[in-house]
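Worked Example 4.2. Consider the chain below.
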Amino acid sequence: MKSHVSDDVREEFCLAAENAQPKTYPFTAALLTKLQDCTDTVPAGVCDVLGIPAGSAYSVAVQEIRRKLGVVLSSLPIEHRGSKLKNAPVKDTDLRRKV
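Applying the procedure from the previous section yields the following structure tokens:
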């Protein structure tokens, strides 16, 4: 399904990627969910930062982030899926791998 996401959401994603410190994952579960079907093209510099091919769609970037983290949104701790903390950054220490 093709999807277009607002400029504000895409900009939030790009800024998070560009300003990320090593070993941190500054993407919220809510942000990744908004972009999971987005077919807009990620800027080349952000693709480079994420280690994905230039010209990739945001949906591809989200898939790669999830793959690298080894999780899917359903495996995030429940507090990251609730409305209270839906915009809290997801840290690698917050992630639980499915076995």
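Residues 7-90 form one domain. The chain has one domain: 7-90. Compare this with Example 4.1 before moving on.
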